[in-house]
Amino acid sequence: MEKKLLALSLCVLLLTSMSLVGCGGNNTGEEKSGPVFLNITTATTGGTYYPIGVGLANLWNEKLKESDGISVSAQSSAGSVENIDLLRNKEAQLAIMQGLCGAMAWQGKGPFEGNPYQDYRSIAALWFNVEHFTVKQELAKTGTVDDIKGLHFSVGPSGSGTETSTLTIMEGLGLTLDDITSERLGYTETAQAMKDGRLDGGSFPGGPPVSAISDLYASPLEVKTLEFSDEHLNNINNVFPTWDKWVIKPETYTGQSEEIHTIAQPNWLAINSDIDEEIVYKLTKTIFENLEYLHGVHKATEQISFETAFKGVPVPLHPGAVKFFKEKGIEIPDNMIPPELKN
């Protein structure tokens, strides 16, 4: 009887050992993590956010999917305001964001009044969102943004960063929606409506060249991208200090022979704060080690650099991004250090 009990005990011990090996136990104590699925939300397809968001997703998949199990998909959206909601609801983990909307969400102002969102962090500044207030040539009386008064004009999709920035700019110009006949359309739809004679103009912020603007300049319709004076810029920044001067170089668009003096605000890459530090480190590292790849996606990505990595970013870095920049010897401003690393 004792021999049978001993044999049974040895059998149980053997099965237990086999079970532990099957669960992934090893001498190093390491466990292989499962696949990671992330979603980056962008904006409408006629602007700059969408193609660059798709380019980022493709880059990360190419470099990280097989080696690290990190898969990223890109989706279109209404833009920055909706992107905050998608991050808040965990329907997206990454987002391309306007500096204005990011600051408003963090501070609980504008469309986020009484409903701030601070459970997100930044990875880096990307490129500048250049304002293109573009109208039919015949309606450009002064050639400045004052000309939108009285026009049938698209301010951007509802819930978009375009809508938010356009209305903020209009406030700085002393205009309200009562001063225009407003529409809320995406970039591609706005450009088509202008060509069809259903709209006088629209707001198309983006990194030049913006595809919808390129389409307009290449079409038979004669258009004009309106200019901003120093006084316009000062009045707009008195509403919310976000913009700087910007010059769109000649020949950026077909037939554009002269400089266009406009204004711009930063775009940046946001990520939810609960994403693992090592994952964010790898995402950040992959961007900055493959800038030439991104330059092939869109010309606006040529603005991404270590020198401008924090310029205009309204939200502290994710610890994973902090790790990468410190590794590269980049000095990080105190306001960019996340609160969790200050405790």
Structure commentary:
The protein has about 350 residues and is of the alpha/beta class. It folds into two domains: about 35-125 and about 265-340, D-Maltodextrin-Binding Protein, domain 2 (3-Layer(aba) Sandwich); about 130-265, D-Maltodextrin-Binding Protein, domain 2, CATH 3.40.190.10. The chain has eleven helices and eleven strands. It has helices spanning about 1-20, 50-70, 80-90, 100-105, 160-170, 185-195, 210-220, 230-240, 275-290, 290-295, 320-325, and strands at about 35-40, 70-75, 95-100, 120-130, 135, 150-155, 180-185, 200-205, 225, 245-250, 260-270. Strands 1, 2, 3, 4, 10 and 11 form a six-stranded mixed β-sheet that branches. α2 (about 50-70) packs across α9, α6 packs parallel to α7 (about 210-220) and α9 (about 275-290) crosses α11 (about 320-325). The longest helix has 21 residues, at about 1-20.
